Amino acid sequence: xxxxxxxxxxxxxxxxxxxxxxxxxxxxxxxxxxxxxxxxxxxxxxxxxxxxxxxxxxxxxxxxxxxxxxxxxxxxxxxxxxxxxxxxxxxxxxxxxxxxxxxxxxxxxxxxxxxxxxxxxxxxxxxxxxxxxxxxxxxxxxxxxxxxxxxxxxxxxxxxxxxxxxxxxxxxxxxxxxxxxxxxxxxxxxxxxxxxxxxxxxxxxxxxxxxxxxxxxxxxxxxxxxxxxxxxx
Length: 233
Description:
The protein is of the alpha+beta class. The chain has helices spanning 10-15, 21-24, 29-36, 41-62, 123-130, 133-141, 144-165, 197-200; strands at 4-9, 70-73, 79-83, 86-87, 90-97, 100-107, 110-117, 176-178, 188-191, 202-205, 212-219, 227-231.
């Protein structure tokens, strides 16, 4: 039993002049409505491709047609795959940033994945405002040349854990602590929200294209680390 992380190159398909109609036909009415709310065409296209690819990936795991897959959301908005009127044993999570999407898949367990395009941000202000005090302090203690990588390592590790928990913004970013050093293994170090998670959740950094940072959080029986695979449209 493995954890799979599928990388989806959204920009490549768009650069090849892909016709979106084929992929739009795979998503449901709710996803189409969400796509149509995007103002800029490239954002709409990325959303359609990411969600169509995720449907295709999950369909291969359960032997169903991609367009026939059905999802429900938990109380905090996390999608859950439904098979025969009950929750599927296949756990998944989708994330996308700029031209890259990741779909993480495992059999059973709680899984969350996050990818971020490493653009310029007001890192110090954001860390002080949203991260745990010990994380903000640790980032400031990194060499200046490593703080940018450290910020995104911390951010993606925290977001992956929140997404695995499926609690959305009800789990504040400053209620738990992850490893902030970008060159050290990802880890959940402390949590006053759920102390038991420190021993039960595993975190990994996910190798992705230059210019991005990604992390995965998981609690379950699958052996790690995740296997990274490339999805082809």
